[in-house]
Amino acid sequence: MQLLKTIESPADLKRLPVDQLPFLAEEIREQIISVTSAVGGHLASNLGVVELTLALHYVLQTPKDKIVWDTSNQAYTHKLLTGRRQQFSTLRQYGGLSGFCKREESIYDTFNAGHAGTGVSAAVGMAVARDLERQDHKVVCVVGDGAMTSGMTLEAMEHAGGLQKDLLVILNDNQMSISPNVGSLSAYLNRTFTGEFITRMREETGHLLRAIPMIGSSISRMAHRAEELAKGLILPGLLFEELGFRYVGPLDGHSFEHLLGTCENVLKLKGPTLLHVITKKGLGYEPAMKDPVWFHACPAFARETGRPLKSSGKPSYTAVAMNTLTRLAREDRRIVAITAAMSEGTGLAGFAKEFPERFHDVGIAEQHALTFAAGLATQGARPVVAMYSTFLQRAYDQVVHDVATQNLPVTILIDRAGLVAEDGTTHHGAFDYAYLRHVPNMVVMAPKDENELQHMIKTALSYEGPASVRYPRGSALGTQMDPFPKRLPIGQGELLREGSDIALMAVGVTVMPALQAAERLAEEGISAAVVNARFVKPLDHVLIAEVAKKIKCLMTVEEGCRMGGFGSAVLESLADQGIFSIPTRVLGLPDKYIEQGPQDLLRVQYLLTADGIYDEAKALLAPISLGLHERR
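RE: above sequence
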């Protein structure tokens, strides 16, 4: 790390001779592989953008010039170059560096992002603000080819094309092989045709043609159309030209010779420009190049083999859910599975292989996924949308307007619900209970274990209306599975333990810790009832009232936001039934964005473990016990 250790800021980078940049790129790859193998992270995409990141910081005047990293999970090199090298080993750890860009972390991070498709919109906003303030800095957005499937990206590009503000969008295309037109000739032509002389000649020729009396404008339009036709025949950029962007590329994203000169030239162009750069995911690490999907977001792994360091030996909730769905699909041809660019993450790859005609990956288009499902449901299909909780937020209006208002039988399988560990703020699934339970017609379920999960999926697919099942990231409990999934009565909870002192009403992954807390309380002579709610909506109002009338205080527990979530629903139920006198407490995630960190650590932090529930139950009971003692 002889070169990397000398870089504390982009200013240090600029002092390096160009011929040293390839060696610095090697050191950066080594550092990224070393740290990611120890702590996990987004490896493949970061190895693919090392040269591009170096080139941008080499030619730009950051932080005056602004770089927006769409999604920002490919910004590890950016972090290493901007004063965070010594903290890089804390990447994605509790209290350490974020795995994404974070404005609170560095002045070089211009926009917080963890969802794909936001970058161009943010960059357009920055360009407009710059011009309003009469400033002269550059605005650059680096966007992946996957984000081009996002409607939001295309909306932003159409807006930018209409505004004609100075803006550079770099399309980091890592799905294509580097074809012949990315070689030296293409690079030479790109540098030439984006140079000041050619650009000025084109503009002056246009002025001269338009100045010819009577026919000048027609000839100018004909010349422009001829240029567009030529581009359409030899370049893949006609779409971007139609959106109002000047298209440049494709360019070898691993060649400093090609990158530096072209970037310098395109940054001088007026108006919106799209630079198409071809990169290779996982470059520099053979396992990541062979399997870029697994190394997109991987756990810690053995550097020598690329294999995960540890496995629980238990199936994940995701695997159980998808095995159940595949099993049910063999019996019901109406079942169609849909995901939004997350077929591997949601576990649908097996379903896709067995039922290719009934599987649809719509790309990063969550809104379309839900309305597409609604359309399928109107024609008798049983669509299942598998999506992370944090990404389902993007399709909220479609859930409300297109699915629920028509009471359509669309099943939403909500993966990565609750605390999701090292991906942090933008990825925790904290809000789905709250944003789904108030939607009319919607059924909201969460299982206490993997056996109940399979039953809930069967229940959802049997329901004649919209239903959601949420489950967490990580390994299941190892519970004995029933041989066949079965329907659960809609809106019926489960009393797991009788009690007369306190009721612990829990849902989802908090049910088992609540049971463990109740057992500890019992050892101290405290009688604790435990309710597995199963349904956040519709609630089992009868069970809630029956239990509430037998106890002295009540506590709800959920791995979701307290505001508007399961606990709020229980309090509303008690009020509606005229039960006001019971001391209550709602235990869940606070009104703040939750930081990154291991699931177990975060659950301890927010009292969602057996110990935390026990302590909160004792605290709730303490005033009551004191009062009883005084009356005696």
